[in-house]
């Protein structure tokens, strides 16, 4: 009964049917709403007696059934049980707390012919849901434009919603970066105490992680300044690992490392490349962008010495007899692309010679030139 | 025809790939020149068809499964041509004469043979020359003709057309 509210019918409402002498039951309990009239519209069921009007929104109705009542004079069907959804009614109504999850409509004699059918059909149609969205038929360009505008507005709202979460994530990410920085600093302090291999590796991971204040495009109005600053950031991130791998690192690997260090606010490959091009315009920078003959781009430390790498390649060749780029890359821990560049530069310097066969390209020590030393 | 003494390069896989490095390539082609001339000399090979190069064991090392491609064979032969040790027989440069002695050398060898065998001022057939037990044994008719033409230019011999073959008259 708590789904009922004090509402009078709107004059514009269409009355579907109207019946008199109906008593309302709350669950199985008879209420004071005795022998009144009921009016059914497309959205509501009204009960009225004299000046009193109460109404039930049809959206609460789950289903209804008629009940056969046995009496001395035989059986009659004069009651409809209406099962309801839980109440979310905030408007004032006659009952604050219901006695049951259903109500009964009790007709004096029998259910009028056709009422139950009309009632069920009205509920099934759910016209209240349809009337909520204004269904306007628009024609012409104006209509189409309006539709497009509305669609845009809807997608705009959903996009804003979606990115709200990301913003929150970014705020947390800053804390994470701070945390990782703290850990790495603590480890640095305790450096003497730690000697275990794994700890060292973990440390190097942490040191490679975390950029306190990533350079973002939004902070700059001028793309040139952005690239210059970005270029410095990249050098800062990459310098240590660059020396570890022997002074040269292919741009793809640089890209991965820089973005791992940034964590969020990831760089596009294009931005990275443009920033790396800036390295060659400033002579004082310790890292340079090098383009190999094959077109492969790589960052190269200014400390990089080609002869050291060449010596290393020759040693590897001496150990293995012959090498493919793949094998060299695994044995000295550089990418395959770079390994191939190394081998080609060794060939260019007359240190190695190639063997092209169906098995692929392999390189051997250059016995042609070193014949005397063999 | 004895077994060929293969040099170390023959079992070195990069030997069968023309090297892009200029200096390396030079050394490689020198090695090829020496090997190929030695091979042709011992195996009496005078004509090489580039397309069928891999039938010659010199271009095809089955042990390390490496072959010299037809393009590479052409490059090797061109290197030989520069020292006068080879000459293309057709415009498409697919058939080549290989001279393990240059034509000048051949000419001198043939003339010396004639001197040593007292053949000056007499006519002898190509068969006689090619069936000698010495250096000239098995010499290709085409190569011999070319060598004799050199002698003709030196006015030391004259090629004659005989019945059933060619002959040559050496002048003193």
Give descriptors for this structure.
heterodimer, A: 374 residues, alpha+beta, PH-domain like, Arc Repressor Mutant, subunit A, nine-stranded antiparallel sheet, three-stranded antiparallel sheet, 43% helix, B: 172 residues, 5 helices, 8 strands, 39% helix, elongated, ESCRT-II_cplx_Vps25-sub (chain B), protein homodimerization activity (chain B), structural molecule activity (chain B), WH-like_DNA-bd_sf (chain B), cytoplasm (chain B)
Explain this structure:
The complex is a heterodimer of chains A (374) and B (172). By secondary structure, chain A is of the alpha+beta class. Chain A folds into three domains: 126 residues, PH-domain like (Roll); 85 residues, Winged helix-like DNA-binding domain superfamily/Winged helix DNA-binding domain (Arc Repressor Mutant, subunit A), CATH 1.10.10; 60 residues, Orthogonal Bundle (Arc Repressor Mutant, subunit A), CATH 1.10.10. Chain A is 43% helix and 24% strand. Chain A has ten helices and 15 strands. In chain A, a hairpin with a 2-residue loop joins strand 7 and strand 8. With 172 residues, chain B is an alpha+beta fold. Chain B has two domains: 91 residues, Arc Repressor Mutant, subunit A (Orthogonal Bundle), CATH 1.10.10.570; 68 residues, Winged helix-like DNA-binding domain superfamily/Winged helix DNA-binding domain (Arc Repressor Mutant, subunit A). Chain B is 39% helix and 17% strand. Chain B has a three-stranded antiparallel beta sheet with strand order 1-5-4, with helices on one face. The longest helix of chain B has 22 residues. Chain B starts with 21 loop residues before the first helix and ends with a strand. The mean pLDDT of chain B is 84. The chains are: A alpha+beta (374), B alpha+beta (172). At the A-B interface, strand 14 and strand 15 of A face helix 1 of B.
């Amino acid at each position: 009964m708590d789904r009922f509210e004090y509402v009078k019918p709107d004059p514009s409402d269409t009355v579907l049917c109207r019946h008199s002498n109906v008593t309302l039951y709350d669950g199985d309990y008879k209420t004071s709403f005795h022998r009144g009239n009921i009016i059914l519209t497309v959205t509501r069921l009204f009960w009225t007696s004299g000046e009193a009007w109460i109404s039930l929104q049809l959206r609460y109705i789950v289903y209804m059934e008629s009940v056969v009542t046995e009496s001395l004079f035989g059986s009659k069907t004069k009651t409809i049980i209406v099962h309801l959804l839980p109440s979310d009614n905030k408007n004032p109504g006659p009952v604050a707390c219901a006695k049951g999850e259903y109500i009964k409509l009790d007709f004096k004699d029998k259910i009028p012919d056709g009422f139950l059918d009309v009632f069920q059909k009205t509920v099934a149609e759910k016209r209240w849901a349809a009337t909520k969205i204004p269904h306007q038929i628009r024609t012409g360009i104006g209509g189409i434009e309006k539709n497009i505008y509305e669609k845009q507005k809807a997608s705009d709202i959903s996009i804003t919603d979606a990115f709200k979460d990301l913003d929150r994530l970014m705020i947390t990410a800053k804390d994470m970066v701070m945390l990782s920085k703290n850990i790495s600093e603590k480890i640095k302090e305790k450096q003497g105490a730690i000697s275990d291999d794994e700890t060292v590796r973990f440390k190097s991971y942490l040191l490679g992680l975390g950029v306190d204040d990533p350079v973002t495009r939004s902070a700059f109005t001028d793309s040139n300044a952005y690239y210059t600053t970005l270029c410095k950031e990249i050098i800062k991130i990459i310098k240590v690992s660059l020396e570890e791998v022997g002074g040269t690192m292919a741009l793809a690997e640089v890209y991965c490392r820089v973005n791992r260090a940034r964590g969020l606010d990831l760089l596009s490959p294009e931005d990275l490349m443009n920033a790396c091009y800036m390295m060659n315009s400033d002579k004082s920078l310790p890292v340079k962008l090098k383009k190999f003959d094959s077109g492969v781009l790589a960052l190269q430390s200014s400390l990089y010495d080609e002869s050291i790498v060449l010596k290393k390649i020759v040693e590897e060749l001496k150990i293995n007899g012959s090498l493919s780029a793949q094998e060299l890359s695994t044995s000295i821990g550089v990418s395959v692309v770079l390994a191939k560049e190394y081998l080609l530069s060794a060939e260019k310097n007359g240190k190695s010679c190639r063997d092209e066969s169906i098995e692929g390209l392999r390189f051997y020590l250059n016995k042609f030139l070193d014949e005397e030393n063999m | 025809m004895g077994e060929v003494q293969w040099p170390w390069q023959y079992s070195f896989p990069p030997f069968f790939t023309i090297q892009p490095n200029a200096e390396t390539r030079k050394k490689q082609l020198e090695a090829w020149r020496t090997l190929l001339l030695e091979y042709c000399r011992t195996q009496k090979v005078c004509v090489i068809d580039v397309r069928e190069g891999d039938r010659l064991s010199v271009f095809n090392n089955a042990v390390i499964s490496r072959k010299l491609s037809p393009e590479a064979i052409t490059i090797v032969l061109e290197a030989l041509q520069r020292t006068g040790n080879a000459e293309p027989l057709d415009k498409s440069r697919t058939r080549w004469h290989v001279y393990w002695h240059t034509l000048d050398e051949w000419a001198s060898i043939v003339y010396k043979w004639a001197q040593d065998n007292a053949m000056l001022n007499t006519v002898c057939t190509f068969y006689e020359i090619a069936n000698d037990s010495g250096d000239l044994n098995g010499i290709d008719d085409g190569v011999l003709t070319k060598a004799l033409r050199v002698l003709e230019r030196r006015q030391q011999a004259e090629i004659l057309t005989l019945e059933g073959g060619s002959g040559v008259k050496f002048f003193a």
